[in-house]
Amino acid sequence: MINRRYFSGALAVLCTTPVGAANRPNMTMHRSPTCGCCGAWAAYIRRAGFSITIVNESDLAPIKSGAGVPDALQSCHTAFIDGYVVEGHVPVEAIEKMLSERPAITGIAVPEMPTGSPGMEIPMMKPEPFKVIAFSQMGSSETFMDYPNGFIAGR
Fold first, then answer.
1. What is the CATH number of domain 24-147?
2. What is the C-alpha end-to-end distance of the chain, expressed in Å?
3. Which of 23, 35, 91, 107 is 20 to 30 Å from the Cα of 77, by its Cα?
4. Percent of the chain with pLDDT over 90
5. What CA–CA distance (Å, rounded) separates 6 from 41?
6. What would the DSSP string read from start to end of 15-46?
7. What ranges do the domains of the chain cover?
8. Cα pseudo-dihedral 115, 117, 122, 124, rounded to 10
9. Range 76-100 burial, b when 16+ CB lie within 10 A, else e
10. Contact 30, 52 (CB under 8 A)
């Protein structure tokens, strides 16, 4: 027999824990300690149910280079999750797609810092279109996901 206290507690957990959160791999993000948008992206990732460890770095160039992120795809932070690289303000749905499909790539990136991408939301400013680019150590890259109208949370 389920008592009311047990049921209320279980319901609270179900309502506050994103679906699949317990099965999500941990993420580690390297960033400059002075970058506010990196913190906003990390908060967005946590709200989606990912555990994220933040490592502050004075020089991100060796991290990006060692991870195989092409110069043209670099952004303000570099994250690592389950054997993949996530560069910049990548939406959660792109990370989830990569983790579920497991493509033979090094990682995905949102180059630069498009206005309106996750962590780059600016009130009263229209989101910029952007693409999530898949890249590999062999130097190839291709569009992984396209956001022609910018990022719309919950889309």
1. 3.40.30
2. 40
3. 23
4. 70
5. 34
6. HHSPTTGGGPPPEEEEE-TT-HHHHHHHHHHH
7. 24-147
8. 80
9. bbbbbbeebbbbbbbbbbbbeebee
10. no
